[in-house]
Write a structure and sequence with these properties.
The two termini are about 40 Å apart. Helices cover about 40% and strands about 5% of the residues. The chain is mostly helical and about 180 residues long. It has a domain of about 30 residues. A hairpin with a 7-residue loop joins strand 1 and strand 2. It has a two-stranded antiparallel sheet with strand order 1-2.
């Protein structure tokens, strides 16, 4: 994460985020050393290579080349694009939708620019696939990992509960049932 943004959220530093100052070569070397060590131990490393927060609809996707330098140093690393969207379907709180794309290999790549381009294409495809699935609002396209409480709450759900009670039916707070 960009070091300037990380200073605003010190808790994230404790969560393992690595501060990066793009204008500082020593900061970039520190990132590469730490990331190589993490990957070399067989661990997962989550990277946001755009270098800034952006809207999921922004195109074209432009990634910083730092992750491609990392992939060149750790050729066994698997580069997997991940698209994330928060979308409202039927409840008062959003759904968190994730889609993993096809892995991108840095092996045989002709350089960091090529690896970066391949990852930009893969991430774009993954994001567009997720967007289409989100618009369809078809839960069968996804696997539910965690489900929060349903319903709106407050007076609205009190009214719904009374209406269901008057009909002799059990109250179902979820809107998709």
């Amino acid at each position: 994460m960009e070091s300037q943004a990380l200073r605003k959220y010190p808790l994230l530093d404790k969560a393992g985020l690595i501060p990066v100052a793009p204008e500082n070569p020593e900061s970039l070397r520190h990132f590469l050393r730490k990331a190589c060590k993490i990957l070399g131990q067989g661990h997962v490393l989550w990277i946001t290579p755009q270098g800034h927060f952006s809207d999921v609809r922004s195109r074209p996707i432009r990634l910083q080349t730092g992750f491609a330098h990392l992939a060149r140093r750790v050729p066994s690393a698997m580069l997997v694009p991940l698209a994330i969207e928060y979308t409202f379907w039927n409840e008062s709180r959003p759904e968190l939708l994730l889609r993993f794309g096809d892995p991108v290999s840095a092996l045989g790549s002709t350089g960091t620019q090529n690896t970066t381009g391949l990852m930009e294409e893969a991430l774009t495809t993954t994001m567009e696939t997720l967007a289409r699935d989100a618009i369809m609002r078809d839960p069968s396209k996804f696997r539910t990992l965690s489900q929060g409480a349903g319903g709106i709450g407050g007076l609205y759900d009190v009214g719904r509960r009374i209406r269901q009670w008057a009909r002799g039916k059990a109250f179902q707070p979820r809107h998709d049932q």
